[in-house]
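Quick entry, no commentary yet.
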Amino acid sequence: MNITPIIDKCNEFFQLKLSEDYFNIVYLKDRKEIDKYYGSKTASRLIWFTNKKDTVYILDKENFETESDKKYIPRDYETTIKHEIVHLCFRHKTWAGRPIWLNEWLAIYLSGKLEYRHPNILKFSEFLSFYYEGGKSVYNESWLIVKLLIEKFWTETFKNLIEKIKLLNFKQKDFEFLFKEIYWFDINYENINKYL
Protein backbone atom coordinates (compact mmCIF):
# COMPACT_ATOMS: atom_id res chain seq x y z
CA MET A 1 0.00 0.00 0.00
CA ASN A 2 1.25 3.47 -0.89
CA ILE A 3 1.17 5.57 2.30
CA THR A 4 2.78 8.67 0.79
CA PRO A 5 -0.54 10.52 0.16
CA ILE A 6 -1.70 10.21 3.79
CA ILE A 7 1.75 11.21 5.08
CA ASP A 8 1.72 14.24 2.77
CA LYS A 9 -1.76 15.14 4.02
CA CYS A 10 -0.65 14.81 7.67
CA ASN A 11 2.53 16.79 7.04
CA GLU A 12 0.49 19.62 5.53
CA PHE A 13 -2.21 19.57 8.20
CA PHE A 14 0.05 19.14 11.24
CA GLN A 15 2.96 21.12 9.76
CA LEU A 16 5.32 18.18 10.10
CA LYS A 17 8.19 16.96 7.93
CA LEU A 18 7.87 13.20 8.28
CA SER A 19 8.84 10.86 5.46
CA GLU A 20 7.51 7.44 4.54
CA ASP A 21 10.69 5.98 6.06
CA TYR A 22 9.63 7.21 9.51
CA PHE A 23 6.69 4.77 9.61
CA ASN A 24 6.60 1.01 9.80
CA ILE A 25 3.63 -1.13 8.87
CA VAL A 26 3.88 -4.63 10.28
CA TYR A 27 1.46 -7.18 8.84
CA LEU A 28 0.75 -9.85 11.44
CA LYS A 29 -0.10 -13.32 10.14
CA ASP A 30 -2.32 -14.65 12.93
CA ARG A 31 -3.77 -14.17 16.43
CA LYS A 32 -0.65 -15.63 18.04
CA GLU A 33 1.49 -12.96 16.39
CA ILE A 34 -0.99 -10.21 17.34
CA ASP A 35 -0.82 -11.34 20.98
CA LYS A 36 2.99 -11.39 20.87
CA TYR A 37 3.33 -7.81 19.56
CA TYR A 38 0.45 -6.48 21.64
CA GLY A 39 2.00 -7.97 24.76
CA SER A 40 -1.02 -9.91 26.00
CA LYS A 41 -3.87 -12.14 24.92
CA THR A 42 -6.27 -10.28 22.62
CA ALA A 43 -9.90 -10.63 21.62
CA SER A 44 -10.78 -11.45 18.01
CA ARG A 45 -12.01 -7.89 17.47
CA LEU A 46 -8.48 -6.46 17.95
CA ILE A 47 -6.94 -6.48 14.49
CA TRP A 48 -4.77 -3.35 14.50
CA PHE A 49 -2.92 -1.12 16.95
CA THR A 50 0.11 1.18 17.08
CA ASN A 51 3.16 1.40 19.30
CA LYS A 52 2.27 5.11 19.80
CA LYS A 53 5.49 6.19 18.08
CA ASP A 54 6.06 5.01 14.52
CA THR A 55 4.57 1.57 13.88
CA VAL A 56 1.16 0.34 12.78
CA TYR A 57 0.49 -3.33 13.45
CA ILE A 58 -2.34 -4.87 11.44
CA LEU A 59 -3.61 -8.36 10.77
CA ASP A 60 -2.63 -9.46 7.27
CA LYS A 61 -5.55 -9.29 4.86
CA GLU A 62 -5.01 -12.92 3.83
CA ASN A 63 -6.01 -14.13 7.31
CA PHE A 64 -8.39 -11.32 8.17
CA GLU A 65 -11.61 -13.32 8.29
CA THR A 66 -10.14 -16.46 9.86
CA GLU A 67 -8.23 -14.65 12.62
CA SER A 68 -10.78 -11.96 13.52
CA ASP A 69 -14.51 -11.40 13.87
CA LYS A 70 -14.51 -8.85 11.04
CA LYS A 71 -15.18 -9.13 7.33
CA TYR A 72 -12.35 -8.09 5.02
CA ILE A 73 -13.31 -5.03 2.97
CA PRO A 74 -10.40 -3.61 0.92
CA ARG A 75 -11.46 0.05 1.29
CA ASP A 76 -11.84 -0.29 5.07
CA TYR A 77 -8.50 -2.09 5.39
CA GLU A 78 -6.56 0.66 3.61
CA THR A 79 -8.47 3.43 5.37
CA THR A 80 -7.66 1.81 8.72
CA ILE A 81 -3.93 1.95 7.96
CA LYS A 82 -4.31 5.64 7.02
CA HIS A 83 -6.34 6.23 10.20
CA GLU A 84 -3.61 4.72 12.36
CA ILE A 85 -0.92 6.78 10.61
CA VAL A 86 -2.92 9.92 11.44
CA HIS A 87 -2.94 8.82 15.11
CA LEU A 88 0.84 8.51 15.02
CA CYS A 89 1.17 11.97 13.44
CA PHE A 90 -1.20 13.49 16.00
CA ARG A 91 0.85 11.97 18.80
CA HIS A 92 4.07 13.17 17.16
CA LYS A 93 2.64 16.70 16.96
CA THR A 94 1.00 16.89 20.40
CA TRP A 95 3.33 14.56 22.37
CA ALA A 96 0.36 12.97 24.13
CA GLY A 97 -2.46 12.01 21.79
CA ARG A 98 -5.08 13.74 23.93
CA PRO A 99 -7.91 14.55 24.03
CA ILE A 100 -8.90 11.10 22.80
CA TRP A 101 -12.09 12.38 21.14
CA LEU A 102 -10.03 14.85 19.11
CA ASN A 103 -7.39 12.27 18.23
CA GLU A 104 -9.96 9.67 17.10
CA TRP A 105 -12.02 11.91 14.96
CA LEU A 106 -9.17 13.82 13.46
CA ALA A 107 -7.93 10.41 12.32
CA ILE A 108 -11.34 9.73 10.78
CA TYR A 109 -11.47 13.18 9.18
CA LEU A 110 -8.01 13.01 7.58
CA SER A 111 -8.03 9.31 6.65
CA GLY A 112 -11.21 9.55 4.59
CA LYS A 113 -13.42 7.48 6.89
CA LEU A 114 -15.68 10.50 7.26
CA GLU A 115 -16.88 9.90 3.70
CA TYR A 116 -18.81 6.82 4.80
CA ARG A 117 -19.51 7.49 8.51
CA HIS A 118 -22.39 9.82 9.13
CA PRO A 119 -24.31 8.99 12.31
CA ASN A 120 -27.30 11.26 12.80
CA ILE A 121 -26.44 13.69 15.62
CA LEU A 122 -29.25 15.77 17.09
CA LYS A 123 -27.22 17.09 20.01
CA PHE A 124 -23.84 16.55 21.62
CA SER A 125 -23.91 14.75 24.96
CA GLU A 126 -20.95 12.32 25.13
CA PHE A 127 -17.72 13.32 23.43
CA LEU A 128 -16.31 15.42 26.29
CA SER A 129 -16.18 12.34 28.52
CA PHE A 130 -13.47 10.90 26.25
CA TYR A 131 -10.51 13.06 27.16
CA TYR A 132 -8.20 10.49 28.75
CA GLU A 133 -9.73 7.20 27.63
CA GLY A 134 -11.57 5.97 24.56
CA GLY A 135 -14.57 3.73 24.30
CA LYS A 136 -17.04 2.47 21.76
CA SER A 137 -19.14 5.61 21.73
CA VAL A 138 -16.15 7.96 21.28
CA TYR A 139 -16.93 7.64 17.56
CA ASN A 140 -20.60 8.65 17.86
CA GLU A 141 -20.14 12.41 18.14
CA SER A 142 -16.49 13.32 17.89
CA TRP A 143 -16.45 13.19 14.07
CA LEU A 144 -18.97 16.01 13.91
CA ILE A 145 -17.30 18.19 16.52
CA VAL A 146 -13.99 18.00 14.65
CA LYS A 147 -15.73 18.72 11.34
CA LEU A 148 -17.52 21.63 12.99
CA LEU A 149 -14.34 23.04 14.56
CA ILE A 150 -12.52 22.86 11.23
CA GLU A 151 -15.27 24.03 8.90
CA LYS A 152 -17.19 26.57 11.01
CA PHE A 153 -14.22 28.12 12.75
CA TRP A 154 -11.54 27.98 10.06
CA THR A 155 -8.87 25.41 9.59
CA GLU A 156 -6.13 27.78 10.78
CA THR A 157 -7.86 28.30 14.14
CA PHE A 158 -8.11 24.54 14.55
CA LYS A 159 -4.45 24.10 13.59
CA ASN A 160 -3.56 26.69 16.23
CA LEU A 161 -5.36 24.54 18.83
CA ILE A 162 -3.41 21.44 17.71
CA GLU A 163 -0.13 23.37 17.74
CA LYS A 164 -0.61 24.50 21.34
CA ILE A 165 -1.75 21.15 22.79
CA LYS A 166 1.86 20.08 23.25
CA LEU A 167 2.37 22.99 25.64
CA LEU A 168 -0.19 21.56 28.08
CA ASN A 169 0.33 19.30 31.07
CA PHE A 170 -2.09 16.85 29.41
CA LYS A 171 -4.84 17.68 31.89
CA GLN A 172 -8.41 18.20 30.74
CA LYS A 173 -8.70 21.56 32.55
CA ASP A 174 -5.65 22.84 30.69
CA PHE A 175 -7.18 21.83 27.37
CA GLU A 176 -10.47 23.53 28.27
CA PHE A 177 -8.59 26.74 29.12
CA LEU A 178 -6.65 26.56 25.83
CA PHE A 179 -9.84 25.93 23.88
CA LYS A 180 -11.48 29.03 25.37
CA GLU A 181 -8.39 31.11 24.68
CA ILE A 182 -8.50 30.13 20.99
CA TYR A 183 -12.25 29.84 20.29
CA TRP A 184 -13.50 32.44 22.81
CA PHE A 185 -16.10 30.17 24.39
CA ASP A 186 -16.12 27.32 26.90
CA ILE A 187 -16.14 23.85 25.42
CA ASN A 188 -19.31 22.38 26.86
CA TYR A 189 -22.41 20.76 25.38
CA GLU A 190 -24.58 23.86 25.71
CA ASN A 191 -22.15 26.01 23.69
CA ILE A 192 -21.29 23.37 21.10
CA ASN A 193 -24.94 22.41 20.52
CA LYS A 194 -25.64 25.97 19.34
CA TYR A 195 -23.65 25.20 16.18
CA LEU A 196 -25.61 22.10 15.15
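second:
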Amino acid sequence: MDIQALFGLSVLMSFVAFGLITRLYIWPRIRILERDDALVPLLVPHMFRFIGLSFLVPGVVSPSLPSAFAAPAAYGDLISAILAVVAIIALSVRASLGTLLVWLFNVWGSADLLFAFYQALFGVQLDARMLGAAFFIPTAIVPPLLILHGLIFWLLLRPKEFRDRVPANNRMTTVHTERSSRSESNIFRRIPRQDVCKFLAGAFFETSGILFYLWLYRIPMPIFSTGFIQTPELAGFRSFVNTVLFLSFFYLGFIRSWKRRSIQ
Protein backbone atom coordinates (compact mmCIF):
# COMPACT_ATOMS: atom_id res chain seq x y z
CA MET A 1 0.00 0.00 0.00
CA ASP A 2 1.14 3.55 -0.73
CA ILE A 3 2.88 5.33 2.16
CA GLN A 4 0.56 8.33 2.00
CA ALA A 5 -2.45 6.00 2.02
CA LEU A 6 -1.10 4.27 5.13
CA PHE A 7 -0.63 7.66 6.75
CA GLY A 8 -4.19 8.72 5.98
CA LEU A 9 -5.63 5.40 7.14
CA SER A 10 -3.70 5.66 10.42
CA VAL A 11 -5.10 9.14 11.06
CA LEU A 12 -8.64 7.97 10.27
CA MET A 13 -8.41 4.93 12.56
CA SER A 14 -7.06 7.12 15.36
CA PHE A 15 -10.08 9.41 15.05
CA VAL A 16 -12.45 6.43 15.09
CA ALA A 17 -10.76 4.71 18.05
CA PHE A 18 -10.57 7.78 20.27
CA GLY A 19 -14.06 8.82 19.23
CA LEU A 20 -15.36 5.55 20.66
CA ILE A 21 -13.28 5.98 23.81
CA THR A 22 -14.70 9.48 24.23
CA ARG A 23 -18.28 8.30 23.76
CA LEU A 24 -18.00 5.27 26.07
CA TYR A 25 -15.67 6.44 28.83
CA ILE A 26 -14.84 10.17 28.78
CA TRP A 27 -18.19 11.82 28.06
CA PRO A 28 -20.23 9.86 30.68
CA ARG A 29 -17.79 11.04 33.37
CA ILE A 30 -17.34 14.70 32.47
CA ARG A 31 -21.05 15.32 31.87
CA ILE A 32 -21.79 14.98 35.60
CA LEU A 33 -19.19 17.59 36.60
CA GLU A 34 -19.37 21.35 36.80
CA ARG A 35 -17.92 23.04 33.74
CA ASP A 36 -14.60 24.11 35.26
CA ASP A 37 -14.09 20.70 36.84
CA ALA A 38 -14.87 18.98 33.54
CA LEU A 39 -12.38 21.17 31.66
CA VAL A 40 -9.37 20.20 33.78
CA PRO A 41 -9.07 16.51 32.78
CA LEU A 42 -9.59 17.51 29.14
CA LEU A 43 -6.66 19.92 29.42
CA VAL A 44 -4.27 17.50 31.13
CA PRO A 45 -3.15 15.56 28.00
CA HIS A 46 -2.26 18.84 26.30
CA MET A 47 0.42 19.52 28.91
CA PHE A 48 2.51 16.85 27.16
CA ARG A 49 2.45 18.54 23.76
CA PHE A 50 6.08 19.52 24.23
CA ILE A 51 6.67 16.17 22.51
CA GLY A 52 6.22 18.14 19.29
CA LEU A 53 9.76 19.45 19.80
CA SER A 54 10.91 16.08 18.44
CA PHE A 55 10.23 17.53 14.96
CA LEU A 56 13.42 19.54 15.48
CA VAL A 57 15.63 16.61 16.55
CA PRO A 58 17.83 15.12 13.79
CA GLY A 59 17.67 11.35 13.88
CA VAL A 60 14.09 11.35 15.09
CA VAL A 61 12.91 12.97 11.86
CA SER A 62 14.56 13.01 8.47
CA PRO A 63 17.05 15.85 7.80
CA SER A 64 14.97 16.60 4.71
CA LEU A 65 11.88 17.44 6.78
CA PRO A 66 10.96 21.00 5.69
CA SER A 67 11.51 23.63 8.36
CA ALA A 68 8.32 25.34 7.15
CA PHE A 69 6.48 22.41 8.72
CA ALA A 70 8.81 21.39 11.57
CA ALA A 71 9.38 24.77 13.25
CA PRO A 72 5.74 25.97 13.47
CA ALA A 73 4.58 22.52 14.59
CA ALA A 74 7.27 22.19 17.27
CA TYR A 75 7.07 25.66 18.79
CA GLY A 76 3.31 25.84 18.38
CA ASP A 77 2.98 22.66 20.44
CA LEU A 78 5.37 24.00 23.08
CA ILE A 79 3.29 27.17 23.48
CA SER A 80 0.13 25.03 23.66
CA ALA A 81 1.65 22.94 26.45
CA ILE A 82 2.55 26.05 28.44
CA LEU A 83 -0.92 27.54 27.97
CA ALA A 84 -2.49 24.25 29.09
CA VAL A 85 -0.44 24.26 32.30
CA VAL A 86 -1.39 27.87 33.05
CA ALA A 87 -5.07 27.20 32.33
CA ILE A 88 -5.16 24.13 34.58
CA ILE A 89 -3.59 26.04 37.47
CA ALA A 90 -6.07 28.90 37.00
CA LEU A 91 -9.06 26.52 36.99
CA SER A 92 -7.78 24.59 39.99
CA VAL A 93 -7.55 27.71 42.17
CA ARG A 94 -10.81 29.12 40.75
CA ALA A 95 -9.08 32.20 39.30
CA SER A 96 -11.35 34.71 37.60
CA LEU A 97 -9.26 34.52 34.41
CA GLY A 98 -9.55 30.73 34.23
CA THR A 99 -12.18 30.63 31.48
CA LEU A 100 -10.37 33.28 29.44
CA LEU A 101 -7.13 31.28 29.64
CA VAL A 102 -8.95 28.15 28.50
CA TRP A 103 -10.33 30.07 25.52
CA LEU A 104 -6.84 31.34 24.69
CA PHE A 105 -5.37 27.86 24.93
CA ASN A 106 -8.11 26.17 22.94
CA VAL A 107 -8.08 28.65 20.07
CA TRP A 108 -4.29 28.59 19.83
CA GLY A 109 -3.97 24.82 20.32
CA SER A 110 -6.61 23.81 17.80
CA ALA A 111 -5.34 26.34 15.24
CA ASP A 112 -1.81 24.99 15.72
CA LEU A 113 -2.89 21.41 14.95
CA LEU A 114 -5.07 22.38 12.00
CA PHE A 115 -2.31 24.56 10.55
CA ALA A 116 0.15 21.66 10.85
CA PHE A 117 -2.25 19.42 8.91
CA TYR A 118 -2.72 22.16 6.30
CA GLN A 119 1.03 22.60 5.91
CA ALA A 120 1.57 18.86 5.58
CA LEU A 121 -1.18 18.34 3.00
CA PHE A 122 -1.18 21.55 0.95
CA GLY A 123 1.76 23.72 2.02
CA VAL A 124 4.93 21.63 1.80
CA GLN A 125 3.06 18.49 0.63
CA LEU A 126 4.86 16.42 3.23
CA ASP A 127 6.09 12.92 2.46
CA ALA A 128 5.17 10.81 5.51
CA ARG A 129 8.55 9.05 5.32
CA MET A 130 10.23 12.30 6.35
CA LEU A 131 8.60 12.07 9.78
CA GLY A 132 10.72 9.07 10.79
CA ALA A 133 10.03 8.04 14.38
CA ALA A 134 7.73 11.06 14.75
CA PHE A 135 5.24 9.32 12.44
CA PHE A 136 3.23 8.46 15.57
CA ILE A 137 2.62 12.11 16.50
CA PRO A 138 0.21 13.07 13.67
CA THR A 139 -1.27 9.57 13.40
CA ALA A 140 -1.75 8.51 17.04
CA ILE A 141 -1.55 11.67 19.15
CA VAL A 142 -2.96 14.57 17.13
CA PRO A 143 -6.44 13.08 16.37
CA PRO A 144 -7.26 12.51 20.08
CA LEU A 145 -6.05 16.01 20.87
CA LEU A 146 -8.35 17.47 18.23
CA ILE A 147 -11.30 15.56 19.70
CA LEU A 148 -10.45 16.95 23.14
CA HIS A 149 -10.33 20.44 21.63
CA GLY A 150 -13.83 19.86 20.30
CA LEU A 151 -15.11 18.81 23.73
CA ILE A 152 -13.53 21.89 25.32
CA PHE A 153 -15.20 24.16 22.76
CA TRP A 154 -18.52 22.46 23.50
CA LEU A 155 -18.15 23.14 27.22
CA LEU A 156 -17.12 26.74 26.66
CA LEU A 157 -19.94 27.54 24.25
CA ARG A 158 -22.72 25.82 26.21
CA PRO A 159 -21.97 26.53 29.89
CA LYS A 160 -25.56 27.13 30.99
CA GLU A 161 -27.07 24.08 29.30
CA PHE A 162 -24.25 21.94 30.64
CA ARG A 163 -24.80 23.12 34.22
CA ASP A 164 -28.51 22.41 33.96
CA ARG A 165 -27.79 18.76 33.14
CA VAL A 166 -25.51 18.22 36.11
CA PRO A 167 -27.24 16.22 38.85
CA ALA A 168 -27.58 18.28 41.99
CA ASN A 169 -25.87 15.69 44.17
CA ASN A 170 -22.79 15.82 41.90
CA ARG A 171 -22.32 19.57 42.00
CA MET A 172 -19.42 20.85 44.04
CA THR A 173 -20.20 23.60 46.55
CA THR A 174 -17.44 26.15 46.42
CA VAL A 175 -16.99 29.23 48.57
CA HIS A 176 -14.77 31.45 46.48
CA THR A 177 -13.82 33.72 49.36
CA GLU A 178 -12.16 30.96 51.40
CA ARG A 179 -9.00 29.28 50.25
CA SER A 180 -9.75 26.11 52.17
CA SER A 181 -13.02 25.66 50.28
CA ARG A 182 -11.26 26.21 46.98
CA SER A 183 -8.76 23.49 47.78
CA GLU A 184 -11.51 21.06 48.70
CA SER A 185 -13.15 21.56 45.28
CA ASN A 186 -9.96 20.70 43.45
CA ILE A 187 -10.72 18.25 40.65
CA PHE A 188 -7.63 16.19 41.37
CA ARG A 189 -9.11 15.11 44.71
CA ARG A 190 -12.02 13.53 42.88
CA ILE A 191 -10.07 11.27 40.50
CA PRO A 192 -10.32 7.64 41.72
CA ARG A 193 -7.18 5.53 41.83
CA GLN A 194 -8.73 3.15 39.34
CA ASP A 195 -9.00 5.93 36.73
CA VAL A 196 -5.39 6.94 37.38
CA CYS A 197 -4.32 3.35 36.69
CA LYS A 198 -6.33 3.38 33.45
CA PHE A 199 -4.62 6.60 32.35
CA LEU A 200 -1.16 5.22 33.17
CA ALA A 201 -1.96 1.99 31.34
CA GLY A 202 -2.72 3.98 28.19
CA ALA A 203 0.41 6.11 28.57
CA PHE A 204 2.73 3.12 29.02
CA PHE A 205 1.04 1.29 26.15
CA GLU A 206 1.79 4.19 23.81
CA THR A 207 5.41 4.63 24.91
CA SER A 208 6.11 0.89 24.75
CA GLY A 209 4.81 0.83 21.18
CA ILE A 210 6.99 3.78 20.11
CA LEU A 211 10.08 2.29 21.76
CA PHE A 212 9.38 -1.10 20.20
CA TYR A 213 9.20 0.61 16.78
CA LEU A 214 12.60 2.25 17.39
CA TRP A 215 14.09 -1.11 18.39
CA LEU A 216 12.48 -3.07 15.55
CA TYR A 217 13.74 -0.74 12.82
CA ARG A 218 17.10 -0.10 14.54
CA ILE A 219 16.62 3.65 14.85
CA PRO A 220 19.01 5.50 17.20
CA MET A 221 17.42 8.56 18.78
CA PRO A 222 19.29 11.59 20.15
CA ILE A 223 17.96 12.82 23.48
CA PHE A 224 16.86 16.43 23.18
CA SER A 225 19.34 19.02 24.55
CA THR A 226 21.88 16.35 25.55
CA GLY A 227 24.77 14.62 23.84
CA PHE A 228 23.33 11.21 24.62
CA ILE A 229 22.01 8.97 21.84
CA GLN A 230 19.53 6.26 22.71
CA THR A 231 20.63 3.05 20.99
CA PRO A 232 18.12 0.56 19.56
CA GLU A 233 19.12 -1.90 22.27
CA LEU A 234 18.29 0.62 24.99
CA ALA A 235 14.99 1.38 23.26
CA GLY A 236 14.20 -2.35 23.28
CA PHE A 237 14.94 -2.61 27.00
CA ARG A 238 12.80 0.44 27.77
CA SER A 239 10.03 -1.01 25.62
CA PHE A 240 10.09 -4.18 27.73
CA VAL A 241 9.95 -2.19 30.98
CA ASN A 242 7.08 -0.04 29.69
CA THR A 243 5.22 -3.16 28.56
CA VAL A 244 5.48 -4.64 32.07
CA LEU A 245 4.20 -1.36 33.56
CA PHE A 246 1.37 -1.28 31.02
CA LEU A 247 0.27 -4.82 31.95
CA SER A 248 0.46 -3.99 35.66
CA PHE A 249 -1.63 -0.83 35.43
CA PHE A 250 -4.02 -2.48 32.97
CA TYR A 251 -4.69 -5.16 35.57
CA LEU A 252 -5.15 -2.60 38.37
CA GLY A 253 -7.33 -0.29 36.29
CA PHE A 254 -9.50 -2.72 34.34
CA ILE A 255 -9.28 -6.40 35.28
CA ARG A 256 -9.16 -5.92 39.05
CA SER A 257 -12.17 -3.59 38.95
CA TRP A 258 -14.16 -6.15 36.95
CA LYS A 259 -13.46 -8.79 39.56
CA ARG A 260 -14.69 -6.50 42.31
CA ARG A 261 -17.90 -5.75 40.48
CA SER A 262 -18.56 -9.43 39.82
CA ILE A 263 -18.14 -10.22 43.52
CA GLN A 264 -20.50 -7.42 44.50
